[in-house]
Amino acid sequence: MPAVQETVERVKRIDVDQYRYGFETLIESDKAPKGLSEETVKFISEKKNEPAWMLQWRLEAYRRWLTMTEPTWARVDYPKIDFQDLYYYSAPKPKKTISSLDEIDPEILKTYEKLGIPLREVAMLEGVEPKVGEEDPARRKIAVDAVFDSVSVATTFKAELKKAGVIFMPISEAIREHPELVQKYLGSVVPTSDNFYATLNSAVFSDGSFVYVPPGVRCPMELSTYFRINERNTGQFERTLIIADKGSYVSYLEGCTAPQRDENQLHAAVVELVAHDDAEIKYSTVQNWYPGNSEGKGGIYNFVTKRGDCRGDRSKISWTQVETGSAITWKYPSCILRGDNSSGEFYSIAISNGYQQVDSGTKMIHLGKNTSSRIISKGIAAGKSQNTYRGLVTAHRKATGARNFTACDSLLIGDKCGAHTVPYIEAKNSSATFEHEATTSKISEDVLFYCIQRGLSQEEAVGLVVNGFVKDVLQQLPMEFAVEAQKLISISLEGSVG
Amino acid sequence: MALLEVKDLKVRVEEREILHGLTLTVNEGEVHAIMGPNGSGKSTLSHVIAGKPGYEVTDGQILFKGEDLLEMAPEERAAKGVFLAFQYPVEIPGVATMNFLRTALNAQRKARGEDEYSTPDFLKKVREVSKSLNIPQDMLKRGVNVGFSGGEKKRNEVLQMALFEPSLCILDEMDSGLDIDALRIAADGVNALRSPKRAMVVITHYQRLLNYIVPDVVHVMSKGRVVKSGGKELALELEASGYTQFEAA
Ligand SMILES: Nc1ncnc2c1ncn2[C@@H]1O[C@H](COP(=O)(O)OP(=O)(O)OP(=O)(O)O)[C@@H](O)[C@H]1O
Ligand SMILES: [Mg+2]
User: Fold this and answer.
1) What atom of ligand 1 comes closest to residue B44's alpha carbon?
2) In what order do the strands lie in the sheet with A222-228?
3) ipTM score here?
4) Is B50 on the interface with A (CB under 8 A)?
5) What is the domain count for chain A?
6) pTM score, two decimals?
7) Can you give the residue range of the structural domain that contains A242?
8) Where is the signal peptide (chain A) (predicted)?
9) Domain contains A132
10) Which of A378, A447, A450 to mutate against chain B (most B CBs within 10 Å)?
């Protein structure tokens, strides 16, 4: 993915205050009135030309949300959010239906270019397959759905995916074009009543991606979504739904960015994954929302509900996340291991610097027989940040032979930060075997000096050592993203020492 | 010409003075040996020259090629040609040795305003050097020093020295933990790097190493000072009679 690399290369020495993606795109936008009410919900639904059932679904969620209170159990601390002081919908103008990239506002395209998103790559623009013998692994095709503020602006490679029978489109389109699939699966993993933020999302979500992979199909390319929050005071509430039908496989990557702002921006997404018999979903996230400046001002509040349902026997869901951004992260990608012999994985790198607060982890719910799960979490805390791993592993009475392996390693850089591990384990049957390992260490001065004596700067040395520390997880990412994530890790740790 | 000049150096660690006015001059092309009892300050001297944090220089100066070394950041010293082979090389899990070598070499070259090595050139160079040091290629794929035997760690230090081509090589007890064969291989590696422009400071407890790496000058250190300097025969003398006669007052 040369475009990404190029962008990364352009990023030279920056400190925490110079957030890499901190630029704003000047475009007109079409906003819902400020605040949240039934009117807002109806406005959004209308804007999207949604069928009546969808509006009803949203309104029920909204009414439910009114009765709920914000959770407070996480180790994060932030001023009360005024939900009436936000915009819940913002679409870039002009809002006509977009059928090709040429119709997209050039300003938006420029933004994506700055983000390093290869929307404009020739192959993608033309949607043509490379000629035989031209397949360059570094230019592997990746279908991209780009979500700008609340609206999906382009989905590339539609035609080629269609040929394979894969549906990959903005969820707003899927609601209109594939209502039977959406109705069947939406909310089936994360019900509208699930939690405060998920319920809010159900009421006001504006867009996101929808993927359906038919039985026996191996999705011919990586699918990817890029989210960008641009508008001031807008919440971003994407909704992603991925269904892998029997015996299918799909690998999906999401990347996130937001401009640098003084005020905090809210992001509350919901991701639902469904894997049927023998299906596999690999979901990777590289999250680098704006983390706030070096005084802790601004940044994204990231309250996300991600859950995968291993509905079928021998199904597999794997979450890999590289979390470097956001002022606050509240996120627990989980797997419900319902099918017999199904398996779930969670590989996580969570880096916090400055005043960032991360409370993240996973839940592995073993319901089926002989289900297995694996959790590898690497937390890195620097600056004045707090980094908590919170994990839950449970085995139901019927989940005989359930197995889990958990390894949580924390690395501290400096002495003003904190790392915490909060594992909950519940086995309701005696045949479950759960293993848990946890370590916390400080970055070693001797190791840093060794690197520096060999010519690396302090920051390069920290980057190198940390990348070594997280290697097991980086290896889980698709190759081109691993390279980007590696650089991102170094960048996000700049200014963390000395 | 003097490559390294240490003048009346006083160094404290955590409020305690370890070096009490140490003077040492090393000229280009020379090999100096420093011997001295445990705790006399040999490693401290090497750390201060390399710029390790935690040491407070209260007096004296260090010139390297006539420039004030103490004013330079440690990575700058490395790029300018100061190399320290550590007494205790550390392990860096997850960072492949090959990747480490390349990152470090290119960082130094960049600091000097030179072009980075291309991948094939770099690989060729590493292969050559590691072969001469009897280091299997497989070892270079492993994490830096992770699971290396004591001898392998020391050979890895010499490998880096050969690769970076520094002008001042400080070897802190490179002979400790090496068996006879490994010692010879490592010493051959070091000898191969002797050149009229390069100087070496070899810290050791054993005269045996100096049979392989024959020094021009031998210094005896005691309690934070150089108390005696002489030719290579001084090492033999020490071997025979121990340090007591040189104990500083
Ligand atoms: N970080 C430190 N804190 C306190 N004392 C220190 C520290 N580093 C070194 N010292 C002390 O300084 C003195 C000199 O130590 P140094 O390691 O330089 O000796 P050395 O000559 O290299 O010994 P050896 O032959 O055993 O390697 C010792 O008494 C040691 O305890
Ligand atoms: Mg020593």
Assistant:
1) 18
2) A151-155, A142-148, A222-228, A249-257, A280-287, A316-323, A343-352, A372-381, A403-412, A433-442
3) 0.95
4) yes
5) 1
6) 0.81
7) 22-103+138-493
8) none
9) no
10) A450
